[in-house]
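Z., the sequence and structure:
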Amino acid sequence: MNTMITEELKKVTKPIHDKLDESEFFAVLKEGKLPIESYINYLQVMAGIHAAFEKEVCDSNHPELQSVWKDSMSKLPPLLVDLESLHATEIEDIPKAIDAMLDTIKFIRLCSAENPLYLLGVMYVLEGSTLGGAILKELVLKNFNFQYDSGVLFLGHYKKQKLQNWEEFKARVNSLNLNQIEHSAILETAIDFFHKIQSIFQHLYPISKTIPFYNVTTLNPEAGRHKIPDDKLEIQAAIKAGARTWEQFPYYAWRYGLRGKQFTRSDSAWLVTLCDLDEKLIVDQIHWLGRILASRGMPQVLLSTHLENLVEELNNVHSDKKDRYHKLLTASNKLNATLNHSIEKSIREKIILEFEISIGEEWNHRLKNMGEIIVSAIVDEKLGIKNALSSVETWATDENRFPQIWIHSVRQLIFAAKKVLMSSNVNL
């Protein structure tokens, strides 16, 4: 069809857009009286929606959809930065807004399953929302007295190129050769999606008097719907344990960045829920998780250490539940026992010390405890975990990332650890 579909999209969504602009959320924001809970939950639901939408787009192999999408359109990264800078995990969810977000995510996935091209309706609404970002950004900065761009990177997306990006986006959409069914479905998708966004804003303000809770998307917008504790103190302990583990192993931040931190939080909270199981089942679950993570560049020593931190933090908030949490420590001890059985602790410490001397003080500070990670990866490989070593070694010997002295030292450590394993002839 030759019709300019973006003009039709503008026409059919305008009544909903106008009504949304008149919502109480924006009225109170203009008055400078919007609660911080409403704004952070707004960022939270937008992060959840963008995470689901961007995943569906990137996972699709639809040529027309891919011709419109550009990596620069991804808004999940600035949303995650905003949430981190505002310490969003300290703010409880607005239950009805989160429920509306989850319903919207379901809608996105159903659209994608029917025909990924229909996601252009969602894309139009999300891209169009950036046009008012500059005005909204100034209102938010004034409302909350934020400093500089703290908490408003998402609203400032595209910066001064908003209009240019919008025109280029419309041109790509209008260049598509759509049939009547596709054309109509995209219009309908945009209308339905806009209605769902409208519903979210109705719940963001005024805030309903309901029982506050944490949803897993508060900890990680990309986590889906897996279980986390109902106990707020346990969630806070899980978050604190994750922070401690990241401090012990800067490798996490170097390799996985902010998205990795979000997954650490949600996974850490999920681990607490395992305490409801029998000890044997917990050990089995941890064994399964340890092998999965090890194959993705996170050797089992990281999980073992994190479990130790988690149990300690849980005991700090609920000293009367130590027996319940001890089951996690049993699983951690089993992981440690395998490592100690493979390479005697004193020998492991000796070859790691040689590595640390070789790389020097500066790199020991930047990536402390990296020797433990490398040795654990070698043991994991010996245990038959596919890609356990290669997933770490490839990253740690990247010439674009590290100097030659580091790379040489990593390879020497791998050689030394493998030699010890061969000479010990341990049956794993």
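The radius of gyration is 25 Å. The mean pLDDT is 93.

Let me know what you think.
H.
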